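Quiz preparation item.
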């Protein structure tokens, strides 16, 4: 017997990817339910070779499922996750609604899966587990094994984030602006983004905060500390780029002790979830186009940063809809199952 899983927000980019990942990784399911808002009831989505019709979130009985994979936004999650968790169902949420709650674990299985053991042993747990921001998830997968080996003191990261991280409307806007005949200097009316995204870069993701950083940049700081180590110093500049799928990051690290390029490369090659492609020749690195559709997080261009003591620089690329969202969510559920932290469905 397997598990019963509900996908909330099944018609969105991440919801559809969750269904694909569950099928591709052969998650032990007996039944999968696609849920959405009332206006999307009856919309068809695919799970492997099956076609599922979306059901209404508001009338669904969550007491009959083991997992609810939530990808319907923070507002929906704030309202529904506690109600779902109260039925005994485990909610794994993709929004930012619960990431900074001290009573909710923020999990990247390659980094801090052990946190789930203590959490699932609690009698008064909320039954909510948070998935980190997409840009954070891929970075900490690469940082964790290096931090274990030499303790990271400081992280400086610049991101190059694809439009899919902002949803289908953002992807449509890039496509609409790109497919038209481009004339230099011609104005393109932005709707989803504050400025034209086609043939451009926008150094703003999410809203600005009082200190001049954006909410996205703050998320990377707060989440890295919660997942890896509260002592790590993090500064980020997050940029939206005209790429459909795949986030890239230029990362500079400062360690407590010397970490050679050879040692870092060796450690990363043995680390779970990481693929090292670092040939130091034209094309000897991974770009977002190549990472799209892949489960791995790719690390390239590992080199010494001579501007600080014990410094390294590297390039990290991953599919933001997968490791940054759907894949990590399914991996959390897999961890609960594989470690026998959730009773098998009757």
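Solution:
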């Amino acid at each position: 017997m397997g598990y019963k899983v509900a996908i909330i927000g099944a018609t969105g980019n991440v919801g559809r990817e969750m269904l694909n990942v569950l099928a591709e990784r052969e998650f032990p399911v007996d039944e999968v339910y696609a849920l959405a808002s009332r206006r999307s009831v009856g919309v068809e989505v695919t799970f492997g070779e099956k076609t599922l019709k979306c059901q209404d979130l508001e009338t669904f009985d969550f007491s009959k499922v083991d997992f609810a994979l939530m990808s319907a936004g923070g507002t929906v999650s704030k309202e529904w996750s506690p109600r779902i968790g109260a039925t005994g169902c485990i909610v794994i949420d993709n929004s930012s609604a619960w990431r900074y709650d001290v009573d909710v674990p923020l999990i990247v299985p390659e980094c801090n899966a052990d946190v789930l053991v203590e959490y699932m042993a609690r009698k008064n747990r909320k039954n909510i587990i948070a998935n980190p921001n997409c840009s954070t998830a891929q970075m900490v997968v690469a940082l964790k094994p290096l931090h274990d080996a030499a303790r990271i003191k400081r992280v400086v990261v610049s991101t190059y984030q694809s439009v899919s991280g902002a949803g289908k409307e953002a992807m449509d806007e890039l496509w609409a602006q790109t497919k038209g005949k481009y004339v230099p200097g011609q104005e393109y009316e932005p709707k989803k983004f504050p400025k034209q995204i086609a043939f451009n870069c926008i150094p703003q993701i999410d809203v600005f905060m009082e200190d001049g950083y954006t909410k996205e940049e703050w998320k990377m700081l707060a989440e890295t500390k919660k997942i890896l180590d509260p002592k790590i110093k993090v500064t980020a500049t997050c940029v939206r780029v005209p790429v459909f799928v795949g986030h890239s990051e230029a990362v500079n690290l400062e360690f407590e002790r010397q970490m050679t390029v050879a040692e870092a490369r060796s450690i990363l090659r043995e680390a779970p979830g990481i693929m090292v492609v670092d040939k130091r020749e034209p094309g000897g690195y991974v770009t977002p186009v190549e990472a799209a559709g892949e489960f791995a997080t790719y690390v390239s261009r590992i080199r010494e940063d001579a501007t600080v003591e014990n410094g390294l620089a590297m390039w990290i690329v991953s599919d933001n809809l997968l490791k940054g969202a759907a894949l990590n969510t399914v991996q959390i559920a897999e961890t609960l199952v594989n470690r026998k932290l959730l009773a098998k469905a009757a």
